[in-house]
Structures are given as C-alpha cells and as structure tokens.
Amino acid sequence: MNDPSESDDEVFSPYITVQRQHWADLARSRQLRLDETVLDGIRGLGDPIDLDQVRQVYLPLAELINVYIDHTTSLYRHSNWYLGLSEQPTPFIIGVAGSVAVGKSTTARVLRELLTVGYPRRQVEMIPTDGFLLPNAELERLGLMDRKGFPESYDRVALLQFVKDVKSGRRCVSVPVYSHILYDIVPGDRQIIDQPDVLIVEGLNVLQPPRPSADHRNSLAIDDFFDFSIYVDAPDEAIRRWFMERFRHLRQTAFKDPESFFRPLASLPEAEAMDLADQTWDTINGPNLRDNIKPTRGRATVVISKKADHSVDYIRVRRV
After folding, report:
1. Is 125 helix (H, G, I), strand (E, B) or coil?
2. Assessment of whether the complete model's pTM goes beyond 0.85
3. To bridge 27 with a disulfide, which of 22, 59, 126, 272 should be the other Cys (CB 3.0-4.6 Å)?
4. Is 78 exposed, middle or buried (0-12, 13-18, 19+ CB in 10 A)?
5. Where are the alpha helices (DSSP H) in 84-178?
6. Within 13 A of 47's CA, how many CA atoms are on the CB side?
7. No. of H helices and E strands in the chain?
8. What sign results for the dihedral spanned by CA atoms 111, 24, 240, 42?
9. 42 CB neighbour count, 10 Å cutoff
10. Domains of the chain (ranges, CATH numbers)
11. Each residue of 1-31: pLDDT tens digit?
C-alpha cells in the first residue's frame, strides 16, 4: 500500500497501488473453487494464466467485487426505505476493458466463474461487446472496415440502449452474436440476457467517455451504468508481441477452418503473413490502443497491471 516514501503524485492519486503479495494475502483464507479442467476451458489463447495466479489475483478481485455488491444492495434497501419505495434491485454491472490480446476476455471469464461458484445463488452472465460491431457490409459501406474495433465501428446507440435496458430491470434483453470465425455478426443469432444478478460487459471501448449528442444535451456513456469496472493493462510492446504470437498460432488453427474469414492467411508464406500482422498492429490495433483504449484506463475502478511475461505486477484500486 502507500507509504511515506511515495511521491506526491502517488499520494494524491485517485488510486491506491496494492503490490502483488499484499493483494494475494487478502484472500489467503478463501477456498478456490476452480480446478485446472475448468481453467483450461476459459483460458484465452496464448494466456498462460494458472491456478496460482487465479488464487493470488482474481480471487481477491472477486472478493472485492462482492464487497461492492453487498454495499450496493445495502444502499438500494436504505434508499427504498427512505424514499418509501418498493423498487426491485437491478443487475450489478461490471465492465472489463483493455487492448486486443491483453487478456481482458480471460479476466472476464475467470471472474464469471469465480462469482458463479463462490456465490451460487447469484445468476452471473457475460457478454462481449463484439456483438455490437456494425456488420461487415455496413463497415464497408461507411469505409470503416480498416477501423474495425475503433469506437466508430460499433453501433453505440444499440450498445448503450442494451446496458440501459439491463440496468433498468427489463426482461429478456437480446444481444447480437459475433463470430470470430466469420469475422462478422451472425444473422438472426441472439443472446438473451434475462435479469441476471450480475452482468459482465467485456470489450475494447466499454470505458469510453460520453460523446456530445446532436441536440447538445448531456450524453450518457456505457460506463455510467457500471457499478464496477476493470482495465487490464500491460506495456505496449508486450501487448504487440502477444498479438503477434496469437496471430501465428491462429494461422495454424482457426484460420484453417473452411468458413474462416482469414482462411487465405493460413496458406501465405510465414514471413508474408507475419508482415501483414505487423502492419495490422501498426495501422489498426496499435493506434486504437494509443488513441482510444488506453486513455480510458483512468476511468476504471481497478487497473490490473501485467508484466511482459503475462504475470500481474500490481493492482491499482480507485479510492472510495
């Protein structure tokens, strides 16, 4: 935690920095109800997360989220009592943000599992925001195919409406489904979210600030409806290397699927394919990280900071 040797910038930061060992000690007495078989099923491609890291990093994070859930529930009860209302509690929404290849999807899936098995009476759901990407045909029409993943490539109105509907307690809210094989929205396929206790929303741009509306009224951001948010961070060069390693692996696996949008890349010479991946990072993923994703880091409740070997170095928690 903070100590007298820290600089004024750290002392007066909106965050408290918690070193890895102290963080791991927070949940030392808690039982980890997750085994290697389950972890194998939720571990992201190229992410070497193991049970020790789950126990030392993500179990304390799940416990902290539970503290927020308990206090949010208490606030709801006291507010209802004071206002003389009988409103039903609405879902507790968690946002998980970060770059391509940084491990945010693994973080979201591990948290879903820990929150489900640790608190079995709660219904925990998760959605990726990929389903709100504009269909490829629309991206082509708008000249945005080379900016896929940038904020403007999403149907932001639909995404915001979805989060508003869930937070207001609406039943059976549907979400478009995205296929990483097709690299596109799956026509007619929908995921239904029906009043879960906890919803995890994972995506590149879920912490984007509000955009001015056309009528110049105050606009809303997606994270205005979040009760807790996480940014998964790492050095830019490490993320770039992880992206390249993942691309190399996908050429040998998913890209060979006959239905894969990227099937032509599987048969390219190695050097040519990797040059294309390098160019993709330099022109799309890198600029998106620098200009759109990383600037939202300071909006998160918790920042998980990774080192170049994927291990978590420290955690920053926003002061309450």
Report:
1. strand
2. yes
3. 59
4. exposed
5. 104-118, 136-142, 156-167
6. 25
7. 12, 9
8. negative
9. 18
10. 12-78+89-318 (3.40.50.300)
11. 444 445 545 656 899 999 999 999 998 888 8
